[in-house]
């Protein structure tokens, strides 16, 4: 097939598509790092400087049977999936993911309303359009509550409002940050998990349940797959997710659904029509042999087979842990020590640096601000997690202070 990829992200899927014999054309997201055309991965990289012109260009490409002869237009995150769906509709190409489903996952308020109408256990919630609406909404929702962007990502701009005192403490920051719509929800106590699944031809296949770890700013610090759960709790989560995926009408896509396991059972936090980030797809392959990137490639080309979602190895536990050092931007990373020692730790599969010498220190406000990761596999969840954490403890980041340069008159 000739495939047009819109946007960036999940480049391993691109390599899987190429290996399956497809010809790839891509319009990358101009706000992201441009993809490298390694070994002729793409037949053409079609650049645009203005993101608003991508859809128009995609329609033009998909309408040209001589130069491109595109068979399918695809994307791997929600923003560009919506664009791909509109382009496919305009050019009479197969529509892979339902536009209504993607909109429900992007707009957390719409998802909550949809679940409420379907009788799926959820939380108290309200949409907040203006800052002056927040105080009254808090009295209706009650404390503690979570305030987050309606269509946020990467744990950005999430606030835990524990009580009246904490509300007044962050009131000025909230007031200055109200440049978009927010969702206010009652806070649910419990451990957090994500469920990795594939929905194809009307069937939902749950691949794994992942245990999630977060810091006080709700930035994810690590994951363990499969989650160490008692059998009855695992089955409870699977039953809940099967109902959730059916109610939402997931089909022809992977899903990454985040839940809290509360005292009264699972409660969905958010869901996505894409694989989970944070290297979860790698943990899945290490633990089960299931190649999620290959599955996504085959879903998008209509060639997925039952064998593709079967486990091919005896299950072990995999863990990823992230380093999140705090720092002022006036400090510059000079050098990194301990990498070789970290890689020699038992059970370590990978160490990856997310910051390089010469870059500024980061004040961690979201998932993009992390500095390094370690992946480990072991017979038990605790061993895998300990190895990943221990490996990162061996790495030392040395910074030097650089005073701000005075502006010349």
From TrEMBL:
InterPro entries: ATP-dep_AA_Ligase (IPR052032), ATP-grasp (IPR011761), LAL_C2 (IPR040570). GO terms for molecular function: ATP binding; ligase activity; metal ion binding. Transmembrane segments: none annotated. Keywords: ATP-binding, Ligase, Nucleotide-binding. PROSITE patterns: ATP_GRASP (PS50975). Residues 112-301 form the ATP-grasp domain. Pfam families: ATP-grasp_4, LAL_C2. This is Carbamoyl-phosphate synthase large chain.
